[in-house]
Amino acid sequence: MDLWQLLLTLAVAGSSDAFSGSEDSSGKPKFTKCRSPELETFSCHWTDGVHHGLQSPGSIQLFYIRRSTQEWTQEWKECPDYVSAGENSCYFNSSYTSIWIPYCIKLTSNGGTVDQKCFSVEEIVQPDPPIGLNWTLLNISLTGIHADIQVRWEPPPNADVQKGWIVLEYELQYKEVNETQWKMMDPVLSTSVPVYSLRLDKEYEVRVRSRQRNSEKYGEFSEVLYVTLPQMSPFACEEDFQFPWFLIIIFGIFGLTVILFLLIFSKQQRIKMLILPPVPVPKIKGIDPDLLKEGKLEEVNTILAIHDNYKHEFYSDDSWVEFIELDIDDPDEKTEGSDTDRLLSNDHEKSLTILGAKDDDSGRTSCYEPDILETDFNASDMHDGTSEVAQPQRLKGEADLLCLDQKNQNYSPSNDAAPATQQPSVILAKENKPRPLIISGTESTHQTAHTQLSNPSSLANIDFYAQVSDITPAGSVVLSPGQKNKAGISQCDLHLEVVSPCPANVIMDNAYFCEADAKKCIVVAPHVEVESRVAPSFNQEDIYITTESLTTTAGRSGTAECVPSSEMPVPDYTSIHIVQSPQGLVLNATALPLPDKEFLSSCGYVSTDQLNKIMP
Amino acid sequence: MDNKGSPQKAGSLLLLLLLVTNLFLCKSVASLPICPSGAVNCQVSLRELFDRAVILSHYIHNLSAEMFNEFDKRYAQGRGFITKAINSCHTSSLSTPEDKEQAQQIHHEVLLNLILRVLRSWNDPLYHLVTEVRSMQEAPDAILSRAIEIEEQNKRLLEGMEKIVGQVHPGIKENEVYSVWSGLPSLQMADEDTRLFAFYNLLHCLRRDSHKIDNYLKLLKCRIVYDSNC
Q1: Per-residue pLDDT averaged across A267-290, rounded?
Q2: At which positions is Zn(2+) bound (chain B) (predicted)?
Q3: CB within 10 Å: which end of chain B, N or C, has fewer?
């Protein structure tokens, strides 16, 4: 029997597709659904088929079989109740229903099986809809626009929830009356649920459906509950009224933009001046700002030379230019020999005196501070003539220069032979710009002093500047012999422009020129780097040649008004590239008989590489 | 003398009548007291134990349903596993109530023991299920992870049930009866169709049994803890 049952089932199954939806191609009756509402009974429904009228209604039959105790011992049985569940249905009451037992049903028409289905009852549970929906008002918002309600219902009456035989969960849906889309809430296990934020002036519809908790299929929806909320109070806030900030901002910006454009592009300059006053730009009288931007340096310097306080700009490019003016007052010292000797005098006191430790009251007491000078010198003995040491010296020297100037003024008439002022210019490389500024201030004063000096005195004897030939490691400054051709130069005009074709081997691209080369270029004593016409005395001491001045002098054409001195200008100034190391100040050695220095072979200027070779 | 005997007879008759009516009126299960030990926290802890057990059983049933659906979707489509009607579960031999009336008539101790038996019967199949799913080619992670989870939760539910039984029915230690599962060879068959059908069968049985246990436990909880008033 088992085997027979198995074969029958297989044959039946092979002939039909049980669960997948087969198309009703020939209008045969087939099962539509089987459903158990409470896990105690179930019913199955089928369609009648197209040939409804042809067949007698009673010919369709339903047979079922259920397996019990692992055996298919039973025969197919006919449906116990064709009526209770409606037309084309079969109702199985609780005595016929066994849960967790497989059932198979088949539909026959005139003895022939038309459809078959197998299932278990717990798989087809679809509860009835809940009943007794009602709602209560929870609260109304302060604005009087929204309200919350609580919706309650009862479980379907046939579901035995109380004994726990079936556990249901519910899903609530609601919408406004004139909407089409239902809003769904999450499933809940309880039979009441709050609905928040309903608007007071609208009508809502609410419906609930249920399903067994472990299943997927929901039952039918309950009847729709109409929720009519109380009308809004007339004193409620006006809804959706917001201050139209957005509009105001937009229009405000628009208006401002229009006004601004009108102002900018209008011809009325007066209004424009009122609303948008022009920003004052820095301006110097008589000078075109464009020239400052684009003009050549010499032109600018020429223009600006009119102004007294522009002397320093000339040296702005030559940041290495530094001037130390030492006051060598002692007339006896001059006769002793070279300045070098003077400076290298063994006694520091002597050097002190050289620097003007005079006792006479010529107005120097206010600015003369011998103690400080002394300490400076003492300090300089400690170090090796570093630039840092030189700087305070220089600063003091600068301060002293003013005094020295006065001294010069006082003593110039008397000191013919003595070099009133030995002002070795120490040109230090790589100095800060402010330094020249400071010096320039002093220089300007010097210039005024020099003008005074130049006139009465014979320039030949007065050495305002002396070239520092060397600075010893001890820190003393070695001066070169004074210029001898200063007198001749003094008459030279500033404009002295010598067109002297520089030899081809002059390297124009160097910042520094060998003085020898410079000498070749310039026939006349150079008036280099002083483009101030009002300081002719400034020229005389200045043998320092810079590139610009060289080009200037070379570029300009003009006749030499001065008689070129026969003598080659003694280099008073030597540029120094490096002031870093303690032995940093290495000056031009051409003034000194140092032929064995190889780095001076070609050029009086020491290049960095050469210097590096010398100094470790 | 007759006068003396008649009141006695009447009394005994009345007593008998009372007993009989009691028996008839007593529709619900006459049960032993729930907490015979009289422990202080007995009622409270029983409630918690049942709540926990119901949560576990519900979870296990959800997992098995999902696992079955996964398997059905992946492997069973188009294979015509119409043998639902034929398949039999190894736990069918255990005489479990099959509808509400039967479940309501059975004693809760009996029902608890039945639940224990079913749970014990599934220890072995679940273990082998995990092993065999792992060894499947392209072991589907959805199925494997759920199988592992079910196996573990089943053990915990078993422990919980044993605790409940210990509280409800202390002292009585029943023999560990369960039905043996013999489906392992078919799970390891070389023929893929046969093997897949064996899997399908097992998963279907698992879903059914987990639903059964879940239902029994919910019923027991309402009956014992909430006095049939969930």
Answers
A1: 74
A2: 58, 214
A3: N
- Closest approach of A192 to chain B, Cα-based (Å): 15
* Closest CA relative to residue A323, chosen from A250, A400, A211, A257: A400
Across the interface, whether the CB atoms of A163 and B223 are under 8 A apart is answered yes
Helix axes B141-168, B192-224, angle to 10 degrees: 30
Q: Which candidate, A156, A155, A46, places its Cα nearest to that of A109?
A: A46
Which residue from B85, B103, B215 is facing A9, i.e. has the nearest CB? B85
Q: Is B214 labelled a binding residue? A: yes
DSSP-based helix, strand, coil % in chain B, nearest 5: 70, 0, 30
A97 pLDDT more than 80: yes
**How would DSSP label each residue in A345-387?**
-S-HHHHHHHTT---S-SS-TTT--HHHHHHHHHHHHHTTS-H
pLDDT digits (tens, 9 = 90+) for A492-538: 444 444 444 454 444 444 444 455 554 555 544 444 444 444 444 44
Burial of B71 (0-12, 13-18, 19+ CB in 10 A): buried
Cβ atoms of A487 and A459 within 8 Å: the answer is yes
| Nearest residue of A to residue B223, measured between CA atoms | A163
B65 at interface of A, judged by CB pairs closer than 8 A: yes
Q: What is the CA radius of gyration of chain B?
A: 23
Pick from A69, A70, A94: which is nearest to B99 by CB?
A94
**pLDDT tens-place string over residues A587-604:** 554 444 444 444 444 455
CA proximity to A450, closest of A437, A436, A468, A463: A463
**Shortest alpha-carbon distance between residue B191 and chain A (Å):** 20
A243 alpha-carbon distance from chain centroid:
38
* Tens digit of each residue's pLDDT (9 = 90 or more) over A116-149: 888 889 889 999 999 999 999 998 888 888 899 9
DSSP secondary structure string for all residues of A317-353: S-TT-----B----HHHHHHS-HHHHHT-S-HHHHHH
Across all residues in chain A, what is the average pLDDT?
A: 65
B92 to chain A, any CB pair closer than 8 A? The answer is yes
B218 contacts on A by Cβ (under 8 Å)? 164-165, 167
> So what's the pLDDT on residue A337?
52
User: How far is it, in rounded angstroms, from Cα B212 to Cα B57?
Assistant: 9
CA distance A170 to chain B (A): 16
Q: How many CB atoms lie within 10 A of CB A542?
A: 25
CA atoms of A29 and A461, how far apart (whole Å): 142
In angstroms and rounded to an integer, the radius of gyration of the C-alpha atoms of chain A is: 59
Q: Closest chain B residue to A70 measured between Cα atoms?
A: B88
CA distance A259 to A519: 69
Nearest beta carbon to residue A100 from set B93, B98, B100? B98
Q: Is B145 on the interface with A (CB under 8 A)?
A: no
Say if CB B58 and CB A213 are below 8 A apart. yes
Say whether A284 sits in a helix, a strand or coil.
coil
Q: Which amino acid is at A475?
A: G
Nearest CA in chain A to B64: A214
Cβ–Cβ gap A99/B99 under 8 Å: yes
pTM, two decimals, is 0.51
Chain B: give the shortest CA distance to residue A161, in Å.
7
CB-based contact (8 Å) between B94 and chain A?
A: no
Pick from A70, A102, A165: CB nearest B84: A102
ipTM rounded to 2 decimals: 0.77
What's the CA gap between A587 and A320, in Å, rounded?
A: 13
Tokens 């539509």 found at: A32
- Residue B96: list chain A partners with CB under 8 A: 100
